[in-house]
Amino acid sequence: MTSTELTVPKIEISFDTPNRDRFLRDDFRNKRESYAVLGRGSYGVVIKASYRGRPVAVKILEKRSHRHRCRYDSLLNEANALNLRHDNIVTVLKIVPGAQYGLVLMERFDGYCLQRIIGHQRNHPIAVQHKLLILCDIISGLCFCHRHNIVHLDVKPQNVIVTVSGAADQPVAPAAGNLPLRKYLCKLCDFGSSMMLQPWQPNETLVNRGTIRYMAPELLRGTGGFTARADIYSFGVTMWQLDEGRFPYEEITCNEVIAYNVVKKGLRPDSITTMAFGRRATNLPAGLRDIGCLHGSLRGPISLTGGGGGGGSSFTGRFETDAVDDVLKRQGIAVEYRAKRPTRVICPTERPDQPMNDQELNVARIMEMFGDNCTIANNERIQLRQSMRTLYSKCWASDPACRPDAPAVRAAIHQALEKIALGKRAGK
Fold first, then answer.
1. Residues 29 and 153 in one domain
2. Whose CA, among 21, 28, 123, 334, lies 20 to 30 Å from 172?
3. Using CA atoms, how far apart are residues 222 and 83, in angstroms rounded to an integer?
4. Chain centroid to CA 342: how far?
5. What CATH number should be reported for the domain holding residue 248?
6. Where ATP is bound, by residue (predicted)?
7. Are 99 and 336 in contact (CB under 8 A)?
8. Nearby residues of 77 by Cβ (< 8 Å), 6 or more positions away
9. Are strands 13-14 and 44-51 parallel, antiparallel or unpaired?
């Protein structure tokens, strides 16, 4: 049967003045469904636009109510990236505050969200050399941030865009050593949780900072005094996720359970007790509701005791979602679940064989980008993976002082890539 529905073209608005001013006054509210949406996240919506003759993505932060205030306040954090110009960081071009909305204008390019690429690993594994190249890009972006006294505070695969090379204005990513040229480049994005390291007040409230499953223990405590090593912890969790192809703590649905055990019990994504923690989620310590070791947003006025007058400490999954995680959301802290579909990519691939309303990754595309184009002996692969495990274990040490800094992490990844390159040259 032939459809009689007409396809309404999506608007790609120009954000040059005066169009931008008109948009801030009333256009978005009146034509919300008309704009080409590139992504939706916990802080707002991203639409397709142009600015001074170049394609841009515009993040729109609403200021309609107190519930959305934390999203709008993140505009100040986004401004930290205004002066960052680096190949591995999404360039923020302009920050525009308004009475109803705040706007973040950033570069737009063909690409995929790393979270979605990792989600395909079980059926289409990413070759080890590509994992290392991806990690090298992320840590290079962090090195640049830290050199400029900026901490990202929300490093995770969802905030990494894998750009697809090949466009006229998109340079091909360089090879490492004697490795073949790659057709992608990874860029760190979303500075809505970022912060300047100096000056910093010890009593500053650390809300709107990060995602529970990737947050360092010192951030979960909320006691202050954190350093750039907080980003290294999150990088370690991201490194584990890329290596394993699984969501961190996927057996545990309650974020508060994760936070408590990360801080008090040293729980990490590779802990053999992770499954046991998931099974014991209904048997939390009676004092958990009043513990002083967690971030203030995790000590909100909520009760973890179940209803029905029994006075027990158990609670259902439904209660967890509606109460515990709602508190986290109100504080501006992202809540993620295994069953939750990853946020659509901010900068989607614009290809005629991939409709804008789908954005599903093409299997052939994955194999082309991340296929195994190196001959590596099996024992060398095992050694490389073990070195990755050793590195991410150091990155998520409980004591921040025991974690390596970003340059040291980058040097370790470079060393691993050099081993692959040397082996490839020796095999010729």
1. no
2. 123
3. 28
4. 10
5. 1.10.510.10
6. 59
7. no
8. 191, 192, 193, 194, 195, 208
9. parallel
Phi, psi at 202, each rounded to 5°? -60, -25
Q: What digits encode the pLDDT tens for the residues 318-372?
A: 333 444 455 555 555 555 544 443 333 344 333 333 333 334 567 777 777 887 7
Q: Which one, of 163, 138, 152, 180, lies nearest residue 391 by Cα?
A: 138
**End-to-end CA gap in the chain:** 59
CB 388 within 8 A of CB 413: no
Name the nearest CA neighbour of 226 among 240, 212, 209, 249: 209
Let me know whether 28 and 156 are in one domain. no
Identify whether 329 is part of a domain: no
Nearest to 175, CA basis, from 115, 142, 130, 212: 130
Domain extent, residue 249, equals 110-170+180-274+361-427
Which amino acid does the sequence have at 172? V
- Please give the DSSP secondary-structure letter assigned to residue 25: I
The alpha carbon torsion through 166, 172, 175, 179 (nearest 10 deg) reads 20
User: Residue 82: which of 201, 191, 202, 241 has the closest Cα?
Assistant: 191
Residues 6+ apart with CB under 8 A from 341: none
The answer to whether 59 is annotated as binding is yes
Q: How far apart are CA 141 and CA 189, in angstroms?
A: 10
Strand 92-96 relative to strand 101-107, pairing: antiparallel
Measured between alpha carbons, how far is 102 from 55 in angstroms, rounded to an integer?
Answer: 19
Cα(368)–Cα(35) distance, integer angstroms: 32
Q: Which residue has the tokens 């790609």?
A: 12
Which band of pLDDT confidence, cut at 50, 70 and 90, is reported for residue 310? Answer: very low
pLDDT band at 174 (very low <50, low <70, confident <90, very high): low
Q: Who's near 358: CB < 8 A, 6+ residues apart?
A: none
d(CA 341, CA 89) in angstroms, rounded, equals 24
